[in-house]
# Entry
Amino acid sequence: MARPKKEAVVEYKRDKSKSMFKEYRVKILFEHQFAAGIPEDPNRLLDFLDARTPTKEPEDAIPLDDLAEIISDQILPSNDSSEEAAMTTTFKTQDGDLVYEARCVKAHLKDCAFILSKNYLEKRGLKTAVANRIQVNPEMLPLSRNGVTLKDVDDKEIRPITVPTRQGPRTAVKIVKYVNAPNMEFTLKVLDDGVVDIDLLNTLFEYGGTMKGMGQDRNMGWGRYKYEIKEIN
# Structure
């Protein structure tokens, strides 16, 4: 019996005259209320961070107390009483501007990729592919409206919530500070290996803007958006 021929090994050589990456400029146009969901009270902020700490922390992880202090300095200044602050979520600021974190946009895209991967797109492992191939810049994304960067929230909404306790469910109050229909712009740097292309990005943003939204209280329809995207290199 003749031995099967070995398949030839094809060596991939990247064209070094071209960048490894493609860049896209994205504009998000929120349709209604948008809230970032950052706890205003330092004690609640520490609990908020602790709940999101991975089981195995990286070696260079910042201690939670120090991280909470850093974030507290970035939170929108407020005259709320300590009792009201304990019930309130707000925004981060940078140089006085309201901002949303780039990492939250990336998490949104990963979430959309995970939902669409199994059935609609039939591409398993798409969440990991997106996580490893997309960078959102800059780190903090200013919120604007009509070309003017926002410096403060538009309003706050007070609503009752049910809180589980050892004595059974109890009613509490949640205060959410929000802005109406803001915009934000950012750049996506994408590894140009054919996995994440403009068609996939359009699919992720179309689904995310229509069905999921970004930010806090998405189950109430907040954070839904339209988008614009174009390649810039």
Observations:
- The chain has two domains: 21-35+91-231, 38-50+62-90.
